[in-house]
Structure formats: structure tokens, C-alpha cells
């Protein structure tokens, strides 16, 4: 059994603009790499086609030729909402001349919508609902579809959705992601500009699931449970990246890296006692970042922590991110800075209930925090998020899957007069943050530390200038 796993390009930018997302931040597709490593351990030959990789195919037809060059028996697509339709186009091209090749789709979009996708999209043979490692292994092994939990399939034309698969309990039993299958890794897979000091960089995820219920978060794959790798496993994973690929910086993309305090303390002590010669970034939740823990993170090599804040309006927080309070956010940011760590604030604009007043309140709050970096996502109502069930009466929804990537507004709150006005308010805030004298002073003071990022910026300056123009306020005011 030969298997090709595909990371479709999707729509990762703003329609009509040059896509510079991979230039700014090319991430390894960790989900596919985890599945590839698991399947290889089961004895299968696995290849990966990363359509967002450093040498992407120019056309869908060329992508399909690359896939078919591996002579696959099974092709798997991992899809976000914005990437799903691109993956369907690729599957249709494969089926035109090779109807015998099986196609299986997985990812958050698939897990959220389920069997209805088989009714609408003929090129798809199977859906993997939830975690993919064991489901794909059983499918590859020839287990009858009716006996594979977590699978949706067609039975003589009728769509069947099997029982849910139980999540993998022991994450330490899984092999490290198959990074080596990515052409150009690690040098041509890079972290966000100015988020690291020394290249090359890599990404890790050390837990699955989240016990919280933020309104906008899609938990279709990992659900609300919380499972995590142990400290020794994480340390060995980091050590492997350092030895095998020369990695000097790791971004840990757990939603709640510090939730299980004991494992983080243990990991920090391992990194302090046996340094690996690398830095890392991680995310903390307000309420899970006391001074002692932050000092340990700093000593262990942490450079920057991200904090999910979302809004500066207390009413919006109560609705969409309960349990997070503005004064506690201020205290957490101050505490992080006091121990010598950098802080990146994560925000979201355009949530249901958003008004021009709440946007201004949030913008004022963001600037007042003296953050080292900021990311303002455009609220996207994903099908697997709790808010999807109540969204219809709270504004206009433009359900264009290709645009549902947090970089385009597809929801207009009822108290914002127009889409153009919402874009104007967004761009005005982004420009305000990066024009703030305090932020610019901090940025200039560290510029030499980030000379590799500066080199990347200069090398791709035309692309970055084009991206900057995308965020000019323009009309709409």
C-alpha cells in the first residue's frame, strides 16, 4: 500500500492580492506529518505533497502529476475550510484517469460537517472524522469500512457514518512527526518574521484538545478533552529537532501549553539542567501564568509568549471568552514583561455583538498594553464552533469557504454599517498599532538581534510592501 498525503494550498490570503502568507510564515503541516510517521511505523510507504511548500506546483494539474508519480493506492487530504474546495478539485483530477485510487479527506472542516460532504462531492471516497492516525491505518490495512470507527463512507450509494473513534489516550506512544518528508525542511520552512533570533526554526504541538468553550473555536477534531505529551517526551522531541535538523528555535502551537503546570515545570527543569541550545515560543492563558512559572520558562529558553485576549470590551469577553478579565490581562502582561519575556497579544475583530465603540475600546486597550507584537484575526464563524449555531440572527454571513481563513471578513455584525466600514476599522487599528512610538522604539532596539528576519524582509521587500498596502485604511470611513 502506497499512500500520498496532501496539504492543499487553499485560499490563505485576500482575494485579488498576491498571497504572501508562505513568504512571511511557512509552517510545516504537523497534522499530516504526525499521520505520516504513524503510517510508516505500520509499514506503509508514505509521501507528502505540501502545496504550500517552498517549491509549489504552478497548476492543479502539475500537483496531480506529482501525486501520481508516487503511484499511490490511497491519497489523503487534510483540509481546513478554506482549503477544502482546492482539495476537491485535486481529487476530481485524480479520479478522471485513475478512478481506482481511493481518496480520503480529513481535518477540521470535514470533522465539523461530516457525511453531508459525501453527498455533495463525488470525488471523495471516505471521510476521516476526528483524529486520523488509527483510522487511516485501518483503512490502509484493508479493514472493512463498516468496521472502522471514525469513518464516513458510501455503501452502494448510501452514505454511512460509523461510530466516533475514541481519542488516542497516550500521546507519548506516537512517533515524532515525519519532518524529513518535507522538501526543503528546515531552511525553507520559516517562523513569522521577528518572532525568533536564530534560524532555522520548527514547530511543535505537545497537546490535543481544550477544556474551555470559547464561542469561536472549532473543536471538531480534538473535542473538549485535554491530552498532552509528558515532559520527557517533549524534551526528546526538541532534542531530536536540534540533533537531526540543527533547529535553533521552536514555536509551540498548543492552545494551552501551561494548563498542566507540573509537566511544564518538569520540562523547564530538563531544559535548564541539560540545555539544548535553542529558544522557544509558547502560548499561555490568563490565569495560568504566575511569576514562578514565567521565570522558569525564561530560564529554560523561552523568548516570547502569546496570550489569547481577543477583545478589550468586557461584554464581548463575557460572551465569547468567559473567564478572562481585562484587569487580569493587564496583570499577566505586566508579569510577563517583568521576568524579561516578550508578549504577543492575540485578538479578534468582528465578533457577534461587535460595534464601532467596542472596536475603538479594543484598539485603545491593545495600545495601552505595550505589547511586543500583536495579531488581530478577522472573526470567522467556522461550522464546528459553538457560535455557528447562533450566528444567523446576529448579522450577515457570507459563507464562502475559500475566504474562511481569518484573513477575510465573512461575517458583518449587525451594528456595523457595511463590509467596507469593517475593513476600514480593521486596517486603521493595524496601522495604529505598528505606528505607535512605543512599539517602534522597542522594535528598533532589537533589530540587530533579528538580522535574519531583516534579511528575509529585504530579500522579499516587494512582496511585503504589497502586503502592507493591503492594510492601508483606504475608503470606508
UniProtKB/TrEMBL annotation:
What Pfam families is this protein classified in?
Answer: B12-binding, Radical_SAM
Keyword Chloroplast carried by entry: no
Q: Where is the Radical SAM core domain?
A: 196-421
The terms under GO molecular function for this entry are:
4 iron, 4 sulfur cluster binding; catalytic activity; cobalamin binding; metal ion binding
Q: Which cofactor does it need?
A: [4Fe-4S] cluster
List, for all copies, the residue spans of the domain called B12-binding. 15-150
Q: Which GO terms describe its cellular component?
A: cytosol
- Keywords annotated in UniProt: Iron, Iron-sulfur, Metal-binding, S-adenosyl-L-methionine
Q: Which residues form the signal peptide?
A: none
Instruction: Cite the CDD domains for this sequence.
Output: Radical_SAM, radical_SAM_B12_BD
Note the Gene3D superfamilies from the entry.
Cobalamin-binding domain, tm_1862 like domain
Stored PANTHER family: ANAEROBIC MAGNESIUM-PROTOPORPHYRIN IX MONOMETHYL ESTER CYCLASE-RELATED, SLR0320 PROTEIN
Instruction: Please state what the protein is called.
Output: B12 binding domain-containing protein
Origin species: Desulfofustis glycolicus DSM 9705
The opening ranks of the lineage are: Bacteria, Pseudomonadati, Thermodesulfobacteriota, Desulfobulbia, Desulfobulbales
Amino acid at each position: 500500500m502506497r499512500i500520498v498525503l496532501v496539504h492543499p494550498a487553499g485560499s490563505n490570503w485576500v482575494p485579488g492580492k498576491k498571497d504572501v502568507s508562505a513568504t512571511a510564515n511557512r509552517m510545516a503541516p504537523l497534522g499530516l506529518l504526525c499521520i505520516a510517521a504513524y503510517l510508516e511505523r505500520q509499514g506503509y510507504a508514505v509521501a507528502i505533497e505540501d502545496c504550500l511548500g517552498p517549491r509549489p506546483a504552478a497548476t492543479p494539474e502539475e500537483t496531480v502529476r506529482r501525486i501520481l508519480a508516487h503511484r499511490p493506492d490511497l491519497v489523503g487530504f487534510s483540509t481546513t475550510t478554506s482549503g477544502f474546495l482546492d482539495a476537491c478539485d485535486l481529487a476530481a483530477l485524480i479520479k478522471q484517469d485513475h478512478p481506482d485510487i481511493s481518496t480520503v479527506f480529513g481535518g477540521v472542516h470535514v470533522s465539523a460537517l461530516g457525511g453531508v460532504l459525501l453527498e455533495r462531492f463525488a470525488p471523495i471516497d471516505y471521510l476521516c472524522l476526528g483524529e486520523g492516525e488509527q483510522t487511516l491505518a485501518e483503512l490502509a490495512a484493508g479493514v472493512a469500512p463498516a468496521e472502522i470507527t471514525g469513518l464516513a463512507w458510501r455503501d452502494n450509494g448510501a452514505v454511512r457514518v460509523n461510530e466516533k473513534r475514541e481519542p488516542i489516550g497516550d500521546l507519548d506512544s506516537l512517533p515524532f512527526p515525519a519532518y524529513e518528508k518535507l522538501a526543503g525542511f528546515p531552511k525553507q520552512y520559516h517562523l513569522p518574521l521577528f518572532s525568533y533570533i536564530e534560524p532555522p526554526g520548527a514547530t511543535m504541538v505537545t497537546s490535543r484538545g481544550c477544556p474551555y468553550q470559547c464561542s469561536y473555536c472549532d473543536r471538531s477534531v480534538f473535542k473538549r478533552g485535554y491530552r498532552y505529551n509528558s515532559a520527557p517526551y517533549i524534551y526528546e522531541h526538541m532534542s531530536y529537532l536540534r540533533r537531526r535538523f540543527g533547529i535553533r528555535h521552536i514555536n509551540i502551537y498548543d492552545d494551552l501549553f501551561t494548563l498542566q503546570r507540573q509537566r511544564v515545570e518538569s520540562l523547564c527543569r530538563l531544559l535548564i539542567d541539560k540545555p539544548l541550545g535553542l529558544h522557544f515560543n509558547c502560548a499561555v492563558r490568563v490565569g495560568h501564568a504566575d511569576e514562578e512559572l514565567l521565570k522558569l520558562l525564561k530560564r529554560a529558553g523561552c523568548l516570547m509568549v502569546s496570550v489569547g485576549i481577543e477583545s478589550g470590551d468586557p461584554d464581548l469577553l463575557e460572551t465569547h471568552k468567559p473567564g478572562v478579565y481585562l484587569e487580569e490581562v493587564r496583570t499577566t502582561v505586566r508579569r510577563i514583561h517583568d521576568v524579561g519575556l516578550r508578549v504577543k497579544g492575540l485578538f479578534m475583530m468582528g465578533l457577534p455583538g461587535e460595534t464601532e465603540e467596542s472596536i475603538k475600546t479594543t484598539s485603545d486597550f491593545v495600545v495601552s498594553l505595550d505589547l511586543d507584537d500583536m495579531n488581530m484575526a478577522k472573526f470567522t464563524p467556522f461550522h464546528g464552533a459553538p457560535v455557528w449555531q447562533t450566528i444567523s440572527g446576529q448579522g450577515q454571513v457570507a459563507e464562502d469557504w475559500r475566504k474562511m481563513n481569518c484573513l477575510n471578513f465573512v461575517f458583518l455584525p449587525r451594528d456595523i454599517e457595511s463590509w467596507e466600514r469593517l475593513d476600514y476599522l480593521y486596517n486603521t487599528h493595524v496601522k495604529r498599532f505598528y505606528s505607535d512610538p512605543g512599539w517602534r522604539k522597542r522594535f528598533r532596539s532589537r533589530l540587530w538581534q533579528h538580522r535574519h528576519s531583516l534579511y528575509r524582509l529585504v530579500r522579499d521587500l516587494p512582496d511585503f510592501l504589497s502586503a502592507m498596502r493591503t492594510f492601508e485604511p483606504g475608503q470606508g470611513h
